[in-house]
Amino acid sequence: MKTVLYLFWVLCVMPLYVANAANGNDAWVKVDDGLFLKEFDPPIKHDADDYKITIVKVDPTYYAFKLFSVSELGGEVMTAKEWAKKHNLILAVNAGMYQADGATSVGFMKNFKHLNNPRLAKAYKAFFAFNPVVSYVPPVLFVDLECHNYDELKDKYNSFIQNIRMISCQQKNVWSRQSGAWSMVVLGMDKSGNVLFIFTRTPYTVHDFIDILLKLPISINNAMYLEGGRQASLYLSTKDTEIERTGSDNNDQPWPIPNIIGIVKKGK
Fold first, then answer.
1. What is the torsional sign of CA 104, 110, 114, 120?
2. Which domain, by its residues, includes 84?
3. pTM for the complete prediction?
4. 51 within domain boundaries
């Protein structure tokens, strides 16, 4: 039965969903200068509890990106909302998966002089670089090892997170098919250089979710996996907008996470 439903979705429902999205039925909502929110209906509803796909678009011209970790700052792990409130962040999301010690990133993670994890994960092909050292590089950069030379970039940014690549610099789905499905939070960049923070509470296989993202009218250029399951978190708070998203198997209780990416307005 699951196979039949999946084939029905791929052959019949998903083309209609993509066509509706491409016709502009989902407009970006401006929540502040350089900050936009957009939510899409899932391509097929498996049950009444399915949720919209949430995307926050951030123009790095207006916002600085920050990396916070308990390994650097000490203290207790906190939810994304608690991190945001403590450090006056507009947005907070997982900075990536972490190891069994509850603090160390599974991929390379560096913030100025602090090394959360000094080891490069050979299987991971994507980095997000921010906090430039020099003025002639972009304020943020999605580093794909197929298209960039990491050795030439490693001294040009103060902050790096390394995670599993989902969409390559050739706009290809590079995740193999797997049977498991779960909630996800994803970091992407569009073709105009905006950063996309993407959240789905409804579980998908990663491969299928990538296919959805590639077909949405969001001009996505690259994407990396940040976290899945109950740990996946996204929190956004502005003067007029507040949203909190959490993974689907945690009874709606936000999960404390040790490493987060946050944004603040530049000049503050």
1. positive
2. 2-106+165-265
3. 0.89
4. yes
